[in-house]
């Protein structure tokens, strides 16, 4: 019989069995930010090549990116694929940071709700990309509801709702999480799924005997306590 666990317990079990690194590759905040756009619909191998070329022409500085022509920026990121769309997104993102004088430290002091709303208003930036930028570029604790988390949580017995609802439920359960906790959780979930790629692989993992307490179960338990 599966052992029922909370999200906090899941984090602890993964932390004890893995090597958490607060993972997102990047030598600077700017490199991390541009990589969140470049990674869309491709793999990290292609992103690494595009980042290398982008660094050559801009040093990852948004001021220099804005000074590039469309053709120059296209040539720099072409290896990441879908470059027509990504060029526009990177330009839009750079213009957004220009509104704050390219001062990431200033932005890191601002409320995350305000920053997230502004990021989501940028064409080409969806919920997942916005949350990765917030967590790794702007130092805000966010749960990134990516495909890997959907896959893992389903293996643990919870079929998650759509992005925003899932994010609200999860973050509501992780109210004591620090930025580092969120970064580690994201890293461990992604790394776990890369190691255990198929549903049958999950049965061989250290999580095989566990099942998440779903929000529905938790609500039922809370109602029972109230009635008592």
UniProtKB/TrEMBL annotation:
SMART domains: ENDO3c. InterPro entries: DNA_glycosylase, HhH-GPD_domain. Residues 38-195 form the HhH-GPD domain. GO terms for molecular function: 4 iron, 4 sulfur cluster binding; catalytic activity; metal ion binding. GO terms for biological process: base-excision repair. Keywords: 4Fe-4S, Iron, Iron-sulfur, Metal-binding. It holds the Pfam family HhH-GPD. This is Base excision DNA repair protein, HhH-GPD family. It comes from Lactobacillus amylolyticus DSM 11664.
């Amino acid at each position: 019989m599966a052992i029922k666990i909370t999200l906090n317990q899941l984090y602890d079990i993964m932390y004890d069995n893995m090597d958490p690194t607060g993972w997102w590759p990047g030598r600077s905040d700017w490199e991390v930010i541009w990589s969140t756009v470049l990674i869309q619909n491709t793999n990290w191998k292609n992103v690494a090549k595009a980042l290398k070329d982008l660094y050559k022409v801009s040093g990852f500085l948004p001021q220099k990116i804005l000074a590039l022509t469309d053709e120059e920026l296209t040539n720099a990121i072409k290896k990441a694929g879908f470059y027509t769309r990504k060029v526009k997104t990177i330009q839009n993102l750079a213009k957004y940071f220009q509104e704050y004088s390219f001062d990431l430290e200033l932005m890191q002091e601002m409320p995350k709700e305000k920053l997230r709303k502004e990021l989501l208003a940028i064409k080409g930036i969806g919920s997942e990309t916005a949350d990765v930028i917030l967590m790794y570029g702007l130092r805000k604790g966010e749960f990134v509801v990516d495909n890997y988390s959907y896959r893992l949580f389903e293996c643990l017995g919870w079929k998650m709702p759509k992005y925003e609802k899932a994010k609200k439920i999860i973050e509501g359960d992780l109210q004591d999480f620090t930025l580092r906790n969120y970064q580690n959780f994201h890293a461990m979930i992604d790394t776990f799924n890369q190691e255990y790629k198929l549903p049958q692989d999950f049965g061989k993992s250290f999580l095989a005997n566990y099942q998440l307490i779903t929000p529905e179960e938790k609500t039922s338990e809370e109602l029972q306590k109230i009635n008592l």
